[in-house]
Write the structure tokens for this entry.
Amino acid sequence: QVQLAESGGGLVQPGGSLRLSCAASGITFSIYAMAWFRQGPGKQRELVARITSGGSTNYVDSVKGRFTISRDNAKNTVYLQMNSLKHEDTAVYYCQAGYLRRDYWGQGTQVTVSS
């Protein structure tokens, strides 16, 4: 069975940092593009960051310079390092794996930025 297991979410103060992890099983991880999406309260789901099988990355403008996506193929894991967090980063964050026309999704992990 394909599983994407997310961890690392939680409550953090503005200006703080969190690192999200997503461990994949049941797929040939190295050939999949991996991405992080988020959905805040009353907002549409948006693509936050994406990394291809070759290591190319892209980010939504609002997180450029603050967030970094990376992958460790030996551990079948993708990460999202989040620094200088703001209130508007509060959302449920979802991990996605994509190859050809097949997509898989994690269950989501809550990130709350609050003082």
The mean pLDDT is 97. The first strand starts at residue 3 and ends at 7.
